[in-house]
Specification:
The complex is a heterodimer of chains A (about 575) and B (about 350).
Chain A lengths: L3 E7 L3 E10 L2 E11 L8 H16 L21 E8 L5 E7 L2 H12 L4 E8 L6 H10 L4 E4 L9 H17 L6 E4 L6 H8 L5 E3 L13 H18 L4 H4 L4 E5 H15 L5 E7 L3 E8 L2 E8 L4 H10 L6 H13 L8 H25 L5 E2 L3 E2 L3 E7 L1 H4 L4 H12 L4 E6 L4 H8 L5 H8 L4 E8 L9 E8 L7 E6 L2 E5 L7 E7 L14 E5 L6 E5 L10 H14 L3
Parallel strand pairs in A: 1-4, 4-10, 5-6, 5-7, 7-8, 8-9, 11-16, 16-17, 18-24
Antiparallel strand pairs in A: 1-2, 2-3, 11-12, 12-13, 14-15, 17-18, 19-20, 19-22, 21-24, 22-23
Helix pairs in contact in A: 3-4, 8-14, 9-10, 9-11, 11-13
Chain B lengths: L6 E12 L5 E2 L6 E2 L4 E7 L2 E6 H5 L6 H4 L7 E2 L4 E5 L5 E4 L4 E7 L2 E6 L2 E6 L4 E7 L3 E12 L2 E2 L2 E10 L13 E9 L1 H9 L4 E7 L4 H6 L4 E3 L10 H10 L3 E6 L11 E5 L20 E4 L8 E6 L5 E2 L5 E2 L1 E6 L4 E5 L3 E3 L3
Parallel strand pairs in B: 15-16, 16-17, 17-18
Antiparallel strand pairs in B: 1-13, 2-4, 3-12, 4-11, 5-10, 6-9, 7-8, 9-10, 12-13, 13-20, 14-18, 15-19, 19-20, 21-22, 21-27, 22-25, 23-24, 25-26
Classes of the chains: A alpha/beta (about 575), B mainly beta (about 350).
Chain lengths: ~575, ~350
């Protein structure tokens, strides 16, 4: 019997659905459908889901939903049906969060890392060491509009007094708000107070007791609060979109924030890596950007809603490859926020669009670096650690016209270190896989192995202190056609591409100059690199960190255009 | 791309009126409300005082009950004794203001004092179409609507006055009026109008450099086209002219492009149109007048004459479904569907 799994993801722009089937022993992506989430008329989310499922049913030739809008869930192994449904979403207003902790360093800083992974806005922070006045704490809590409160502090078995006082205040707050308007409360502090918190606050399903994110001095583990936080967020989203209640109440439906599902897949990718490198994923949507980095099993992530300020306009102009007036750029970016579906038509608009995307990535990674000491990134010199693969997903990447545009946007934004591979999620399937992983762990493994992601390029990033025009690297390229090998030289400030042929990997011996670092561990150290066949093949980025750019504006634009054209296809 | 048209003579406006913090909703479904009516109200204590009886009086937990003179839920007057430690030198905790004992937990007494009232008033009259539990209601009303592109989140009501530019001689007539400024408005001009008592401002387009300052202006501002150099089309201008000197509501709410929520210039009408039994079929786009986004045609209008089935590649390399547009100067251009706004139904 074949087993089928359905996954649905709702983003602000599109709602997507995928159907996977276990056909003779291995899972396959059978069909994929997309429909705009809000068409402008008064459709509810359930209408949109129905529409995308209908389209999927037509494509896959399957019946997935009854007329009563119930999924055909497999109840008997002999009767075909869905074994699981994943429902993920990344829409909704930013969740207004209050953070309460005992100390800045050990409570509030970890809490910021925890909540900024999701679409949240921190509206109030209370540090109990700095604000011991319980009356003032209560006044602040009652006069602030918020949806979610997270309380942490103290190691397990540690002092309780300050936390007990806050918990009493929360009890009062919950009573004042009434059951219909209770905020979600997550307790992730000293576990000696967990039962007390539950009894004292008495907020039913709106209270979520998590493990202590700081169980002992100097040890931080945000994953202890993940489950409780996801539950709290899901409840808030259901409050915001009550029409989804009927869907998620059905059996075998797994409802998750999209970013959580993606991180689950990134975790798995990192675990299965043999190169000891970290995994980075960038997800760009017209209204927000999201980054996930998995380093040594630790998840780091950051959600950033788009915002245009004067610095952004300057950065976009500096990144653009066309001569554009500041007012034109400012107007484009301001109007772009009002019309997220806008299609850049002119060369200037396209230049602003791609520059804006690169700037968004830089801002995203910079903010993430300020939040996590272990994520080392500087917007001028780029990533300082090795990441492979770097996954690119989201509607903003999807609509770019060519692989070279996608590559340049990502490369200029990320400025990776050493040797890495860019991978595109053309079907935006990673979220779907993350949501279905707990039904059958084999499903994501086999789907990823089936080359569902598209290889964009293998990149060798050369870091050298020499002047522009000086040699930084020699390559001996084996294109797989017998003994013949081509020799190439790469000079500082160059971007060079070596095409790959489908089905034929490219092998290259890298011989860096003594002062060049290509990520092999030491300056001057080289070796063989295998580049799998991909859209762009092997790219050597020797443009420097920061990139060597002429001072003159016209020449600078020319250099940027040349780099793009060097990528060909 | 089926979005509401920019100019609609019989538009059903849905306007949510909400409290920032939960409170009590004062209206019921179907209720008729007037502009300024209070839709919801939150009464919060103005301040709290938490008194730690055990620690302040230095007593044992077992002695707490004998110290407490008031119970949770009791109203108290200023000076009332809430807790007292008897002895050679007695110690008191008195209510600093009129209020209520809201909690006694773990040896701590919490007093709530004073009242802080937060109200959500409707900027527009209409019918309560939906209740938002604990927060407010959605007011629905039919009328004429001219949708804009950008608003700074504020609302006002007043008589519509049209100005081509801000001149000293015109400033007397802007007081309490909704002023339409037919130009690319800069912050200085808007500030002048604000200082002279204008109730709200409607502009053809805004200078992008002024965006942040205008957002903070304490007066509603709505831009019809958005930001940058552009001239308003004749159809929109004629619609504004018809409203001149009459009472209008400027709902300069923030746009949510994903839900097709836009700021609006609105005038309620007496229309008593009832809901159709069956939804009207979506009108075909061919023949409709559309306004164009993006350079070099930003703000100009044309008629949709053809909708090719196939996706086309634009000069930038981006692929999109397009509409063939016949512009006012008879030129024919191909524009991505996403770069169009339907002007009238």
């Amino acid at each position: 019997m074949t087993s089928s799994y359905l996954s649905i993801d709702i983003s602000r722009t599109d709602t997507r659905a995928w159907i996977f089937e276990n056909q003779p022993g291995s899972f396959e992506l059978v069909a994929h459908a997309v429909t705009p989430t809000f068409s402008g008329l008064d459709h509810s989310l359930t209408d949109v889901i129905d529409k995308v499922i209908l389209e999927l049913e037509e494509k896959a030739g399957l019946n997935l939903q009854s007329t009563a809008k119930r999924f055909y869930i497999e109840t008997d192994r002999n009767i075909p049906g869905l074994r699981g449904v994943g429902l993920t979403m990344s829409i909704g207003k930013p969740i207004r969060v209050v953070l309460v902790g005992i100390s800045e360093k050990y409570s509030l800083e970890p809490l910021r890392r925890l909540v900024r992974f999701y679409n949240t806005e921190i509206v109030l922070e209370i540090c109990l060491q700095n604000e011991p006045n319980i009356s003032l704490q209560l006044e602040k809590l009652t006069s602030t509009a918020f949806d979610l409160l997270i309380l942490t502090g103290g190691v397990d078995g540690g002092p309780e007094k300050a936390l007990r006082a806050v918990i009493s205040n929360l009890r009062l707050l919950v009573q004042l708000r009434g059951s219909a308007n209770r905020p979600q409360i997550v307790y992730a502090g000293n576990q000696s107070l967990a039962d007390y918190t539950k009894m004292e606050i008495d907020a039913g399903d709106d209270l979520h007791i998590a493990g202590n994110i700081q169980p002992e001095s100097g040890r931080e583990d945000l994953s202890f609060a993940s489950k409780a936080l996801v539950k709290a967020i899901s409840r808030l989203r259901l409050k915001e979109f009550p029409e989804l209640q009927g869907l998620i109440e059905q059996p075998k439906v797994n409802f998750l924030p999209g970013e959580f599902a993606r991180a689950r897949m990134d975790h798995w990718l990192e675990q299965t890596q043999t190169n000891a490198k970290s995994v980075l994923q960038l997800h760009l949507e017209p209204d927000h950007a999201h980054a996930i980095s998995i380093q040594h099993g630790t998840r780091m992530g950051f959600w950033q809603n788009n915002q245009v300020d004067e610095d952004t306009i300057s950065a976009v102009l500096a990144q653009s490859d066309q001569s554009i007036e500041r007012t034109t750029a400012a107007a484009y970016l301001a109007n772009r926020e009002l019309h997220p579906g806008f299609v850049p038509v002119t060369i200037e608009e396209m230049s602003l669009e791609t520059a804006w995307m690169s700037v968004r990535i830089r801002r995203l990674l910079s903010e993430m670096a300020t939040l996590y000491d272990d994520f080392r990134y500087d917007d001028r010199i780029g990533l300082m650690d090795d990441f492979e693969p770097i996954l690119l997903s989201g509607a903003s990447f999807e609509r770019l016209p060519s692989a070279r545009h996608t590559f340049m946007v990502a490369q200029d934004g990320i400025l990776p270190h050493g040797i890495t591979t860019f991978v595109g999620d053309d079907y935006q399937v990673i979220t779907a896989l993350g949501a279905l992983a707990e039904f059958d762990p084999l499903l994501p493994v086999q789907i990823v192995d089936s080359d569902v992601f598209s290889g964009l390029a293998t990149v060798i990033n050369v870091d050298s202190p020499v002047a522009a025009g000086q040699k930084v690297l020699q390559l001996e390229v084996d294109e797989g056609y017998g003994e013949a090998r081509e020799h190439y030289q790469v000079y500082q400030a160059e971007l060079k591409r070596f095409e790959t042929v489908p089905g034929n990997d490219l092998r290259a011996y890298l011989a860096p100059e003594p002062e060049s670092d290509i990520g092999m561990g030491l300056r001057g150290l080289g070796g063989w690199v295998n580049a799998r066949a991909s859209n762009l093949g092997l790219v050597v980025d020797a443009r420097g960190r920061p990139c060597f750019l002429p001072v003159d504006e016209k020449s600078r634009h020319e250099a940027r255009r040349d780099w793009l054209w060097n990528l060909g296809a | 791309m089926v979005k509401n048209a920019i100019i609609q003579t019989d538009h059903l406006l849905s306007f949510p009126v909400e409290l920032p913090v939960p409170g009590k909703v004062n209206v019921h479904l179907g209720q008729l409300v007037e502009q300024g009516d209070i839709i919801a109200e939150a009464v919060l204590p103005a301040k709290f005082q938490v008194f730690d009886v055990i620690n302040q009086f230095r007593i044992k937990e077992s002695g707490l009950d004998s110290c407490l003179k008031r119970l949770a839920g009791e109203d108290v007057q200023r000076g009332d004794v809430i807790a007292k430690k008897s002895g050679l030198i007695s110690r008191f905790f008195r209510a600093p203001e009129d209020g209520k004992v809201v909690a006694i937990r773990d040896g701590r007494v919490t007093l709530a004092m004073g009242e802080k009232v937060i109200q959500a008033q409707t900027p527009i009259g209409g019918t309560v179409g939906e209740l938002i539990p604990g927060l407010g209601a959605v007011i629905v009303v039919r009328g004429f609507s001219l949708r804009g592109s950008w608003g700074n989140g504020k609302t006002a009501i007043g008589q519509l006055v049209m100005l081509d530019e801000v001149k000293e001689s015109d400033l007397a007539k802007v007081k309490d009026a909704i002023v339409y400024l037919n130009s690319v408005a800069r912050f200085a001009e808007l500030k002048t109008l604000c200082d002279n008592g204008a109730a709200g401002i409607l502009v053809a387009a805004l200078d992008p450099a002024s965006k942040i300052e205008i957002e903070q202006l304490n007066m509603p501002v709505m831009s019809l086209l958005g930001f940058g150099e552009a001239a308003l089309d004749q159809l929109s201008r004629s619609a504004i002219e018809e409203l001149q000197n009459s009472q209008v509501t400027l709902l300069a709410r923030r746009a949510d492009p994903y839900r097709d929520v836009k700021p609006e210039l609105f005038q309620p009408s007496e229309s008593v149109k009832t809901a159709e039994l069956f939804a009207e079929p979506e009108p075909t786009l061919i023949g409709q007048t559309a306004r164009l986004l993006g350079q070099p045609y930003f703000g100009s209008v044309g008629k949709i004459v053809e909708l090719p089935e196939k996706t086309e590649r634009t000069a930038s390399g981006m692929k999109s479904k397009v509409a063939v547009i016949k512009r006012e100067d008879e030129t024919i251009i191909r524009v991505p569907l996403e770069n169009l706004e339907i002007l009238t139904c």
